[in-house]
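Quick note —
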Amino acid sequence: MQTTRNTAVDAYRGLVMLLMMAEVVQLSRVAQAFPGNSFWAFLAYHQTHVAWAGCSLHDTIQPGFSFLVGVAVPYSVARRLAKGGTFGRMLAHALWRALVLVALGIFLRSLHSERTYFTFEDTLTQIGLGYPFLFLLAFRSPRWQWGAFAGILFAYWLAWALYPVSGGFGAHWAKDANFGNAFDQWFLNLFPRTAPFVANSGGYLTLSFIPTLGTMILGLAAGRWLSAAAPRIPMRRLILAGAFGIAAGLLLHFAGICPIVKRIWTPAWTLFSGGLCFLFLAAFCWLIEIKGWRKWSFPLVVIGMNSMAAYLMAHLWERFIIDSFRIHLGRHFFQFLGTGLEPLLRGTAVLLVYWLVLFWMYRRSVFLRV
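Predicted structure written out below.
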């Protein structure tokens, strides 16, 4: 099994993190400044989450991040075993990593709260809750892994389908009136809160970590294929897995069995978004590992190799950098192309600062790990 890094994986991770950091360019505000302009409307659509069922480019960020966590596990396990690591020590590290991810997620969600805001629906906590199970599955056979994947999706679908709701079958996946929200109304109110929890404004749920684990298992399979076949790229497997996932998700959606909804991470969304992740990974592998076109991907690799640092920058530094621009450059500095494009120009400058810091860290081999 290969232990060296896969540049295509780093580049794909870099794209995922760039899409997340690029929220700062506020394309929705730009589109509002140019009503009726289809170009800005298209870009704005793909930088926002869809209201409920469906998918935009922005909706692929969290599944991409989760999928790539799974891809990295076979490489990480092989590297630690090569250095003499034992299962016990690796399990302890996996549990510690999970705890840190959950704690970081809660910390970031609490930044603008009066007290600790206990919530478990964001990217870091969702990954943290599922990571110990993913680690354990990495030591099982592929049959075990695929069995766990199928079992997770079917059991999760069944729990939602059997939960009593009013309305037709599709009402089982309605916002704020579903099995997952009922769980959160009990679970999240066990923690101290400024007000009783009723529903998440976006419909996001704690229990989504279960099908998110399914997404990570798909990544685990991709990582296993890549590391076992290295230096060859199993393009056929990646493309077929991508096509099957997308087709299966669409079939469940249009057959009325289960809708494709990212906000509650339905099993159909796990399959559909997982298929997209396989195809993204296949495209990066084809361009970088097979065709050897590497230079274009360097800016993405710089981000992808320090994804945790990039994530924290996007959540902690944005206001500080924008305030610094206002103080030192003037309140209207980014209006030189008009007020409509001001968010885009200012956000692009913030992105450049992020990247330059990440490049500085890259040049000095400073990588933030959990």
